[in-house]
UniProtKB/TrEMBL annotation:
Enzyme's top EC category: transferase
Assembly behavior: Homotetramer.
Organism: Ferrimonas marina
Enzyme Commission number: 2.7.4.6
Name under which the protein is recorded: Nucleoside diphosphate kinase
Source organism superkingdom: Bacteria
Source species taxonomy: Bacteria, Pseudomonadati, Pseudomonadota, Gammaproteobacteria, Alteromonadales
GO molecular function: ATP binding; metal ion binding; nucleoside diphosphate kinase activity
């Protein structure tokens, strides 16, 4: 199995609920290691740039509004098949459809306020990591 890195966000709703640690614990329990982490409050421009692929979608303005509504945690997760592993931990985009025991089932309120983001492929993981972190802010974990 390949050791990968993926990009993750604890969204404003989950930060407001004070469940950053609970969410980080799920990553750790699944064997994913946090190799970079920081809290940021996105500007409108930063949020629009991050979600540029959704620019033409009807939910884009609401998404940008929500993602700028409060601070978020951004982190890089490292581990075996990290991209897919993190998507499994997160659950479906709509919490009403998310499997029991997933982050969105347990912590999300709606399709908009859905607690977490995770890269959907290796290529997007690379792009998203670079959007938030310089190379020297990422600390490889050998154990
Ligand atoms: P994310 O990018 O945040 O990890 O979520 P995702 O891959 O599961 O979903 P994606 O299709 O990339 O959509 C990004 C975020 O936009 C909001 N969304 N709202 N109202 C809607 O139909 C709708 N669809 C998507 C969600 O907050 C989703 O996480
Ligand atoms: Mg997505």
């Amino acid at each position: 199995m390949a050791i990968e890195r993926t990009f993750s966000i604890v969204k404003p709703d989950a930060v407001a609920k004070n469940v950053i640690g609970a969410i980080y614990s799920r990553f750790e329990a699944a064997g994913l290691k946090i190799v970079a982490s920081k809290m940021v409050h996105l500007s409108k421009e930063q949020a629009e740039g991050f979600y540029a692929e959704h620019k033409e979608r009807p939910f884009f303005p609401a998404l940008v509004e929500f993602m700028t509504s409060g601070p978020i945690m951004v982190q890089v997760l490292e581990g075996e098949n990290a991209v897919l592993a993190n998507r499994e931990i997160m659950g479906a985009t709509n919490p009403a459809e998310a499997a029991r025991g997933t982050l969105r089932s347990d912590f999300a309120d709606s399709i908009d306020a859905n607690a977490v983001h995770g890269s959907d492929a290796l290529a997007s993981a690379e792009r998203e990591i670079a959007y938030f972190f310089t190379a020297d802010e990422i600390c490889p974990r050998t154990r």
